[in-house]
Amino acid sequence: MGARDTVAAYFGFDEHDTDLRTELLAGLTTFLTMSYIVVVNPSILGAAISVPGRTDAQTIQMIAVVTLVSAAVATLVMGLYANRPFGQAPGLGLNAFFAFTVVLGLGVPWQTALAAVVVEGVLFLVLTAVGAREFVINLIPEPVKFAVGTGIGLFLAIIGLEAMRVVAGDASTFVQFNPVFASDPVAVLAVLGLFFTLVLYVRGTKGAIIIGIITTALAGYVASLLGFSAFPADQAPEGTTLLSASLVSSSGLQYSAAGYDITPLVGAFVQGFQNVDALSFALIVFTFFFVDFFDTAGTLTGVGQVAGFLDDDGNLPDIDKPLMADAVGTTIGGILGTSTVTTYVESSTGVEEGGRTGLVAVVVGVLFLVSLLFVPLASAIPQYASHIALVMVAVLMLQNVAEVDWNDLTHAVPAGLTILVMPFTYSIAYGIAAGIISYPIVKTARGQVRDVSAGQWVLALAFVCYFFVRTSGILAGQL
């Protein structure tokens, strides 16, 4: 048996109706759409982590190295152990909570925040090992499970359109079409790239998303050489908020030997256990736990739906394995020195390219490791180009809404809230929470209280408690 046949047998190509070329292409696609985190995560955590004797640039590089290593390890576990095409890396939102709420906002040492991440990861490991995490996820009501894919699609669309500078913030309406679109080269180029990608996809061109991303990025470099420059965000009309952008990408990371020495971050969580207030520490772990738990649940369910992995009840078979990979990633990430590692919704881009096995994740993990040798691909691909994939996938994921029984209000209400709340709160977890809380309420209102299990009532109550803790100021009051 040759190497190709061995790989095919190990990952089950025949069982998943795929082949080596498709899996490799899907892995590259997922990596390109995830790779922005290699630049974004250091910039966010760098605002909160200060290492004595290291410059800000060296600290940012250290975090970038840790980001790459933790993402690679977690994703390789996902591919080789769980055999699922899901990529993992430090999660957006969770890193912002780590930096701006816990460390900068509440004054908690960054080492203590890392300790909370490690405790969360160990807790996930235990719950997954005993099957409790899978049990909780299976408590999610069916309409919520079927709505997750569409909600994630809208969530991706918001992220993508914002990075492409198609939409902008507005003080009155919160969001609007970029009022200076025609004079903003980034926005124009991004939209042209999107339509180019759509044309390729509709025509059935294999690798359409990759071709679209690379072509758009190259066009940006050419435009820059011709003298075009990005419309400065600070020149936008009054009241308008635009993300800073450039036709060419520059991560600002200057690699040095000191930057590669990550020993000040590795194991720093141990110091974080010193002089810890038990209640405040528990509240931080509680918040990390809930957001990561249900972000992961939503991502696995949503991407699993796109891939056709879900069974007739809307459950992901053998979900304990990808959950274990996620738990391992979180634990290792905290030990190495980064915020919570989670499964990425961008994995859906590789799934849309036909990826169905763990080889997709292996490719992503290897590319993260290769990126340690040179400037990460994320710094070569402008964000407005890579995020074309998010809008593409968002459009395709809308078809999942057809699975919901809209004629049954006890399904329509939870599903509708799940779909609407995700993009408008910028959180997958909040969308799932809205659906879970509303499900027993509408079932009871229709006289169908027997359809609601005791576990679903407990889950709904737990989310109510979570929202109270997260938004009442109790967390700030304890620190």
Q: How far apart lie the N and C ends? A: 61 Å
- Indicate the proportion of strand residues: under 5%
Number of helices, where a helix is a run of at least 4 consecutive DSSP H or I residues: 23
Total beta-strand segments: 5
Strand order of the largest sheet: 3-2-4
- Uncertain segments are none
Shape by Cα distribution: globular
Number of domains: 1
Q: How would you classify the helix and strand content by structural class?
A: mainly alpha
Helices and strands, in N-to-C order? HHHHEHHHHEEHHEHHHHEHHHHHHHHH
Mean pLDDT: 86
Helix coverage percent? 55-70%
Main sheet summary: 3 strands, antiparallel
Radius of gyration over alpha carbons?
A: 22 Å
